[in-house]
Amino acid sequence: MHRAEEFRLGALLRYGILDTPREADFDEVVNVASAVCNTPISVINLIDQGRQWFKAEVGLGVRETPLDSSICAHAILQPGLFVVPDTTLDRRFADNPLVTGDPHLRFYAGALLETPEGFPLGTVCVLDYKPRELDDTQKAFLRLMANQVMKQLELRRINAAEHVARVRAEEMVAEKETLMREGDHRLMNSLQLVQSILSLQSRGASSDETKAQLDMASNRVLAIATVHKQLHLTGSLEKIEIDTFLRRLCDNLKHTAPAQITAINVSAENAKLRSDVASGLGLLVAELATNSFKYAYSPGERGPVDVSFKTTANGWTLEVSDQGRGLPPGFDVDQSKGFGMQVVKAFVRRLNATMSVSSRPGRTAFEIFSTED
Fold first, then answer.
1. Residue span of the structural domain in which 30 resides
2. Which are the contacts of 161, defined by CB distance < 8 A and separation ≥ 6?
3. Mean pLDDT of 169-192
4. Residues 12-22: pLDDT tens digits?
5. In angstroms, rounded to a whole number, what is the distance separating the alpha carbons of residues 339 and 36?
6. Which tops the pLDDT comparison, 223 or 198?
7. DSSP secondary-structure letter at 268?
8. CB atoms inside a 10 Å sphere around CB 319
9. CB atoms < 10 A from the CB of 53, how many?
């Protein structure tokens, strides 16, 4: 092992992040990155000795893979943002087993996770099964998320130093709290900035389809930002009051709704849920409500979107419905290939929930229910 690699691995170990459980803050990063970049896969990747390990992932379903098939192992050798529009055309990856075989990865973009000393640790990356490019907003967003992840890792390193140097406990606690408050504000401001950029682009969109896609991305970011804001307001790191959260989210969603949407009605029980569950519910509501904005009502018709949340004996039920024209004849949610419905099904799976759909003229309802709180 080269001495430079020894120093890099030593820097990675000092963060105390390897083989830790999933955490909502990091899961939110990959969820939003996947939504904003419109990719099925997003990962926070750390390059360890002989393996790449994922602190958070969406679309892969595993926590680590061998280093010899890693695209990120090449990415950490590049400064800033590393983009491979088509892996089959890049001699470094054309023979990679993840490209030639399952899952047939064709696109990669990764923003470097770099320590203040300049050691590359890994990437925040997005991947797709087809060749593509990112626009300037998506590239800037990936860099922003990499900066936010490094801030979180720096906080973790400070926590580890706290544990070792107990004689400085009070000073270190004060420093940690200051950094956490600053990190919270910066993350909220960053998410609000991204949403503002998407909203501005939507208003200037040259086509209805482009505007609809930008509005969907904006609403996905809004759902995550609302979760983070409520955690900050309540001072809780784990639990969210779901009724307050859904009402605040839907109030904000109404600003992106077309004029034919008369209201977004919320009926929610007063319950506290884990932040990762609330985040998933928020993204489901944003996705399904936006879908109703686009398709529920025929031109000239008006009506509401209704959101209902109830707790059960051992779980919960979420329903998003409208009073519009109904789904197209023959619509099969399991066979739908639309990106929005793929996002919905992905979050249903992530929540270990199931979904049923009922539709007729005058009422269409998506019901998601789980037996886990």
1. 3-164
2. 172
3. 60
4. 888 889 999 99
5. 12
6. 198
7. E
8. 18
9. 20
Cis peptide before 103 (omega within 30 of 0): yes
At 170, which helix (H) or strand (E)?
helix 169-203
Tokens standing for residue 320? 């998003």
Taking each helix axis from N to C end, the angle separating 169-203 and 136-164, rounded to the nearest 10 degrees, works out to 170
Residues 332 and 220 occupy one common structural domain: yes
Instruction: Give the pLDDT score at 164.
Output: 58
Q: Which amino acid is at 231?
A: L
Q: Are residues 32 and 153 in the same domain?
A: yes
pTM: 0.49
What CA–CA distance (Å, rounded) separates 11 from 361?
Answer: 60
- Our count of domains for the chain comes to 2
Other Cβ atoms less than 10 A from the Cβ of 178: the count is 10
370 φ/ψ angles, rounded to the nearest 5 degrees: -135, 150
Asked if 302 and 341 count as a contact pair (C-beta separation under 8 A), the reply is no
Q: Are residues 12 and 147 in the same domain?
A: yes
Residue 320 in contact with residue 309, Cβ under 8 Å? no
pLDDT for the residue numbered 38: 93
- In the chain, % of residues over pLDDT 90: 36
Cβ-proximal residues to 285 (8 Å cutoff; 6+ apart), any chain: 223, 246, 249, 250, 253, 307, 318, 320
CB-count burial class (<10 Å; 0-12, 13-18, 19+) for 64: middle
Residue holding tokens 């919905």?
344
